[in-house]
Amino acid sequence: MTETPPEDVAPVVGCDEPGSFARDVLVTRHPALIRQVRDAHPYTPAQLLALDALLGEITEGVLRPLPPEAHDHAAWRHWRMGEHVGRSWFDASFLWAESYFYRRLLQAVDYFGPGPWQGIDPFAPAKRAELHSAAVDEELHALDTLPGLSRADEAAALIQAALWGNRADLGFLTTAAESARSTTGLVADDTDRLWALLGAEPPGTVAVIADNAGRELIPDLVLIDHLLRHGHAHTVVLHLKPQPYYVSDATPADLVDALRRLARAPGHAGQVGDRLWQAMATGRLRPSAHPFFCAPLPYAAMPDDLRRDLAGCTLTILKGDLNYRRLVGDRLWPPTTPFDRLTAYFPTPVAALRTLKSDVITGLTADRVAELDATGDGWRVSGSHALVQVRGA
Ligand SMILES: O=P(O)(O)OC[C@@]1(O)O[C@H](CO)[C@@H](O)[C@@H]1O
């Protein structure tokens, strides 16, 4: 594994800097999410008490451990939960604090059981509303234009749809200003290099590390259908989250719902859904849900079994902001730090498709950074900008 030289290692993104994006997420977004979840389900007195206790803890208290009977207690001990217990949440790194927050939220609503609430996704109402929204109806109807496009134009349209589908992030939209939801443009665009990697003969296995369900997962699935249909991949492994995470991150249940939504749609969307349903049956589309995808660690720390699984792929496509942060290590790198150097450890060529929703950014030219900073529109966190960055073989 290629390590970044220590003298070049930038500070890990923390939560303790007043006015920082990360601190605002803990101060504003997480309490808002607890209130949303609390109102979205007919929880029992014990669950309501647990949610209220978590709200108090994250805002004014000190970090408490998972109960010893938690199924993943050993994993979180390995992920250094003990060092954080008894300290302020704001002392933890941003990635660690957020990951642990979502794990504790699941604990408060008995997601892992045993009992009647086992497996009930606290974010399901929001995910369901989005998946069955008029906006998705329109997006599915718009797929009827694809057969009229050239293969190259279809490919370009599908990359853009998958890229900007990342804005459909229910956690981000909790606090994003309406004005920030307009899209401005790309800060980096390696789309041509992405398609060059997808032109490998014979087509191999492409890994897609998914991000959000619903309005992001559907364009991701339409892109996957294109890759399978036009010889860019013999097989696609779709890496999902094994449990609800970051509000709208896609779980296997969300994949089933999205495939059903597609297959039941009229027109071209329904044909895509039927092909993907068949791809699941033949194994050409293979879902996976490794526990590490909910770990509070950068991808450089991935376990050997996941590394081996990915190493067999010709390319890994990583969707979204959190995956980008974990890919490059969630550090405040100088924006001109080469993306290739920070991703050299990854076991395959990588392509990051991400709308910018947090401070971490790499691989830009100094001129581009100066140009973006001059706009003053919070380009790093507003979701108005996006990137396609590729590190080749
Ligand atoms: O990975 P995604 O869904 O594109 O974005 C995840 C996100 O909403 O959560 C974190 C802040 O809560 C940031 O990484 C980002 O804003």
Automatic annotation (TrEMBL):
Membrane spanning residue stretches: none
Reaction equations catalysed: beta-D-fructose 1-phosphate + H2O = D-fructose + phosphate; beta-D-fructose 6-phosphate = dihydroxyacetone + D-glyceraldehyde 3-phosphate
Alphabetic keyword roster: Hydrolase, Manganese, Metal-binding
Damage-control phosphatase ARMT1-like metal-binding domain ranges (all copies): 28-368
Manganese recorded as keyword: yes
Database matches in InterPro entries: ARMT-1-like_metal-bd_sf, ARMT1, ARMT1-like_metal-bd
Keyword Cell inner membrane: no
Record-given protein name: Damage-control phosphatase ARMT1 family protein
